[in-house]
Amino acid sequence: MRLATRRRLGALAVLAPPLGWALLFMIVPYAIMFAYSFYRKQAFAFVPDLNLDSYVALLLDPQYSQVLLRTLKIALLVSISALVLAYPLAYFLVFKVKSARLRLFLYMAVIVPLWVSYLLRAYTWKTILGNEGVLNSFLVWTGILSEPSSLFIYNQFSMVLTLTYIFIPFMVMPIYTALEKIPRSLIEASGDLGVPPALTFLRVTLPLSVPGILAGATFTFCLTFGDFVAPFLVGGPDGTLVANTIQSQFGIAFNWPLGAALSIVMLAIVIFILSVSDRFERAGRLDLA
Amino acid sequence: MSILEVERLTKAFPGGVTAVDDVSFGLAEGEFVTLLGPSGCGKTTMLRMIAGFESPDTGRILLGGRDVTDDPPYKRQVNTVFQDYALFPHMSVGENVGYGLRIAGAKRDEIARRVREALATVDLLGKIDAKPSQLSGGQRQRVALARAIIRRPKVLLLDEPLSALDVKLREAMQVELRHLHQKLGITFILVTHDQKEALVLSDRIMVVERGRIVQSGTPSELYENPASPYVADFIGTANLVPARVLGAEGDLLVAAIGEERIQARRGGRDFAPGAEVLLAIRPEKVLLEDRPDALSATVTETMFQGNSLRLKLELGGGAPFAVDLPLQATLQQTRPPESGARIGLRVDPANIIVFPAEPRP
Fold it and tell me: pLDDT tens, A53-97?
């Protein structure tokens, strides 16, 4: 056998398992979902009668656009609050903690919750914010409140809070990495050229950490966008997100075509966000070496 | 008056390493001074304290007569050329060079004029809109220089600026640095471990050993009159041959290497007979001569070095010794000695420097 042929066969052997995996567990399910979105619901069955009814319903029925908008809003709020909390933390870890061991310890302290079950972490907030929860008990005990308040939970605030808590490691990690990659000499050079620290941050550190911010924001946004557990546990009546709606279409509402269409719309939005963020990332990609 | 005065600077790092140990020196305006020493000797820490990136434990730094010891870097009228150049990757060459002026609030057309001027000085005007990542190592080096001189600092600090360049480019940049220094008239402090670079560039070299300046002088002073075996071996190369003092003959000292006698200049020092000494002899200041009073040696290895031939020898007493023979047209006919050959060496007493033997630990 010629060397080139052998190489090609070898490459195929290496590539086949991952390609097969992606095909079987990603492409095929998406294709099935895509196909279902054009089905029609008939009594208690779905018939492959190609039509756009589900998409039209999504467009015309305001409850779907409302839930989509609400989900986008929550995802945006979670991303922003995660960024506001995570950036100073990552900055502090990278630039202010002098001891490498302490830095690693604190960094791990941020990451470790990811090893804990998602449900457990979401439940934690239920026990903190709930009517009989830690926060209410404390406020009543100190006399600040005369009786437990129901303002803390089952609303969008509690949902944003919980989701921010759950997804913040995904914001800290890329920002931390981006900041750590900035050569210290760049920051020193800025000072050397007569620029005080605050301006150095705005002109050098911040612009060079934008890739990390973008990556973190993309993570938290997309993860929130597809979440259905937090709304279920702490969301309350005005806290339903797209994923919950999809779930109910496949469950109680028993309208798979509509659920499938909603899934496809959601997928399209996520892909759009990823490609936009990727474009920004490419445009700002810098050679730090 | 000196433009920069460093007084009794000391700096210890956590862990108890004293990086800079009671260092004082002054620089005249327009001087080109080199801090020369091996890596880890504290020379970079000295530079970083002058720039303001590190603060000294004790001591003062006066810049143009003003105490700047407690000033942050951005308030000091010094600029640094960093070892890795530290160009801002998100700015163009022109933006990099004009960065300091822009933040300082200079007028747009003035910035443009001075950026062009600085880039013209380093002959890189054509790259004003390029990104640093599009430049070669030598070009980045020039941008770093242009950026550092645009604000006309009182002192320009250069932290191993040429170490990342290949040999040819490094030599070309050495010449350019000299010209730049002459053109600008700014005081330069260069930190390097490359003794050749120090010899070529400096008006004055300060040799640093373990946080201290062990000798300061012009390149030729240091080369001809090193103050210690360390300096003798660091600037150029030197054979350091252990010997025993036999006595004095006028201005000359007579010593014994093994069983053989050799004369050396006293250099103002007095040595008692019987004292252990080190003789510093440069490889290129040795003649091959087969005379009865010559030092005898055995050739162990010969190495071709292009313009010279290095002979590795063993002296009568067993000490290693190196000799460089220049390969001039006339000498090329004579066959160099081969391995195992016994030869005679003669050294002019004026070319032997005597040091007291270092106390054994």
Answer: 899 999 999 999 999 999 999 999 999 999 999 999 999 999 999
3-state secondary structure of B237: coil
In a domain, A128, yes or no: yes
Pair B78, B157: CB distance under 8 Å: yes
Which domain covers residue A162, as residue numbers? Answer: 61-284
Q: Residue B28 corresponds to which tokens in the numbers above?
A: 């005249």
Facing residue for B133 by CB, picked from A194, A208, A287: A287
At residue A77, φ and ψ (nearest 5 deg) are: -60, -40
Amino acid at A117: S
Coil, helix or strand at residue B227: coil
Q: Does A186 touch chain B (CB under 8 A)?
A: yes
CB contact under 8 A, A195 and B83: no
- Shortest CA gap B69–chain A (Å): 15
Instruction: Tell me whether A42 touches chain B (CB under 8 Å).
Output: no
Quick one: closest CA in B to A200, which residue?
A: B103
Query: Looking at CA atoms only, how far is residue A213 from chain B in angstroms?
Result: 16
How far lies A203's CA from each of A140, A176, A215, A252, B100, in Å?
48, 18, 20, 54, 11
pLDDT digits (tens, 9 = 90+) for B282-341: 998 988 887 777 888 899 988 888 888 888 998 877 888 999 888 775 555 567 778 888
Domain count, chain A: 1
This prediction's pTM: 0.84
CB proximity A191 to B under 8 Å: yes
Domain coordinates in residue numbering, chain B: 2-233, 237-356
Cα of A256 to nearest chain B Cα, Å:
49
Which pLDDT score is estimated for B302? 87
Helix ranges, chain A (H): 3-22, 28-36, 53-60, 62-91, 100-111, 118-129, 134-142, 156-181, 184-192, 197-200, 206-225, 229-230, 242-250, 256-284
β-pairing, B204-209 vs B32-36, is parallel
Q: Is residue A11 part of a domain?
A: no
Q: What is the pLDDT of residue B361?
A: 42
- The secondary structure of A248-277 as a DSSP string is HHHTTT--HHHHHHHHHHHHHHHHHHHHHH
Q: Is 3.40.50.300 the CATH classification of the domain at B2-233?
A: yes
| Assigned fold of B237-356 | OB fold (Dihydrolipoamide Acetyltransferase, E2P) (2.40.50)
| Residue A289 is assigned to a structural domain of this protein | no
8 Å CB contact between A92 and A180: no
Domain assignment of residue A88, yes or no: yes
Beta strands in B167-319 (DSSP E): 187-192, 204-209, 212-217, 239-249, 252-257, 260-265, 276-281, 287-288, 295-304, 308-315
User: Can you spell out the DSSP letters for A4-39?
Assistant: HHHHHHHHHHHHHHHHHHHIIIIIHHHHHHHHHTT-
Say which CATH number the domain at A244 has: 1.10.3720.10
How confident is the model at residue A79, as a pLDDT?
97
